[in-house]
């Protein structure tokens, strides 16, 4: 019992460090927790998340595999393993793990796994399957912005700029601070040769300053107008 309580102390510290972005400290605490409680699925899953954040994808997969060995119905670990496979561009294994995540009817956030399946199919160039899974994601959560954005990306890539425009306009209307969507809206206006409207979007991004990387990209496009 003492070891279990000590493991939970290290686990909670590790999760706290992870949420603060202190990856090294999180890794240290969670490794200690797993030594004290090597059959605790939550500790092992958390350890996998730290490895994932450190781009140690193979080690992350090892941890997530261990977590689902302990509990085959552990949807969070299946989803996390799928994300690790996505990062390694192993899309088929990613799709398989996301499928296992949503097969559990008690999974609290299936919309995330369905969105991830959609992204895996998108990376494989299978747009119809991708759209189908994004739509499934939205059935579970209409407020989840990622599938809405990703649907717009598919239309944009297929050069269906009218549909892309409608998708990104609705998204920016609902979430004005969503810099990535606003940037894509601007680029869609450019494709439709609506330069003034595109410039308005890029300038709004720069003014809002919500996302440094997107601001830099918007500034680059503004320079092209000069």
Give a short summary of the structure:
The chain contains 13 helices and no strands. By secondary structure, it is mostly helical. 41% of the residues are buried.
Describe it.
The longest helix has 19 residues. This protein has a domain of 84 residues: Tetratricopeptide repeat domain (Serine Threonine Protein Phosphatase 5, Tetratricopeptide repeat), CATH 1.25.40.10. It contains 13 helices and no strands. Helix content is 80%, strand content 0%. It starts with a helix and ends with a helix. The model has no long low-confidence stretch (mean pLDDT 96). The chain is an all-alpha fold and 226 residues long.
Mean pLDDT: 96
Note the run of SSEs as H and E: HHHHHHHHHHHHH
Top CATH class of the domain at 143-226: Mainly Alpha
Spatial shape: globular
- The count of helical stretches stands at 13
> What is the radius of gyration?
21 Å
Q: Level of helix content?
A: over 70%
CATH architecture group name of the domain at 143-226: Alpha Horseshoe
Q: CATH homologous superfamily of the domain at 143-226 - what is it? A: Tetratricopeptide repeat domain
Structural class: mainly alpha
């Amino acid at each position: 019992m003492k070891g279990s309580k000590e493991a939970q102390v290290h686990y909670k510290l590790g999760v706290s460090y992870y949420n603060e972005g202190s990856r090294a400290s999180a890794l240290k605490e969670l490794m200690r927790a797993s030594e004290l409680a090597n059959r605790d699925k939550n500790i092992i899953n958390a350890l996998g998340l730290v490895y994932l954040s450190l781009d140690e994808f193979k080690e992350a997969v090892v941890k997530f595999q261990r977590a689902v060995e302990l509990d085959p119905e552990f949807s969070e670990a299946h989803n996390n393993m799928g994300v690790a496979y996505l990062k390694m561009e192993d899309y088929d294994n990613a799709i398989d793990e996301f499928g296992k995540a949503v097969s559990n009817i008690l999974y609290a956030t299936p919309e995330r796994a369905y969105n991830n399946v959609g992204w895996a199919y998108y990376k494989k160039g299978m747009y119809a399957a991708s759209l189908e899974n994004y739509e499934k994601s939205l059935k579970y959560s209409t407020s989840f912005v990622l599938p809405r954005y990703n649907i717009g990306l598919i239309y944009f890539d297929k050069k269906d700029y009218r549909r892309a425009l409608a998708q990104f306009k609705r998204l920016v209307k609902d979430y004005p601070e969503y810099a990535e969507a606003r940037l894509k809206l601007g680029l869609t206006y450019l494709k439709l040769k609506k330069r003034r409207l595109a410039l308005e979007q890029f300038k709004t991004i720069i003014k809002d300053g919500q996302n440094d990387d997107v601001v830099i990209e918007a500034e680059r496009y503004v320079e092209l107008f000069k």
